Amino acid sequence: MTNNTIQKPTRTLWPYAIIAVFVLFGGYIGFLVRQTMKTSVDLISTDYYQQELAYQKRMESVARTATLPAPVTVLHDAAARKLTLQLPASLAGQPLAGTVHFFRPSDLKLDFTLPLQANAELQQQFSTAKMQPGYWRVRLDFTAGEQAYFVEKPLVIK
Known about the structure:
Helices cover 27% and strands 31% of the residues. The chain is an alpha+beta fold. The chain is elongated.
């Protein structure tokens, strides 16, 4: 006698699990691609190539600034919302010309440049009232007589 009972095949969830993993992985990759496409990738500066070419001159200016008898100081008074730039007294009597560049690493649109206009005490004051809170870099690029100088100082506006 033969047993003619037909066994029902057992169902397994493995094929569905594998398909679900592939679908979820594809969805995750799609999400990451979408997020990266929305992210703004601004250059730190628009003329970075020209700045790289002037790198050697900048290093000479930085070295010359380091040899000054007194340092260039940048003092921030948060309560009065002002910034005081103090040049060394050894530069007195020399014609001064230059720029003060306020550089915001996180947002290129907030950068601005002002002319260097030191008074008789070799000081210049700037208002920080309109500057957004955060990390800034103050870059002073100036000439005194025939010598070029450069200094960069960090600044945190609260």
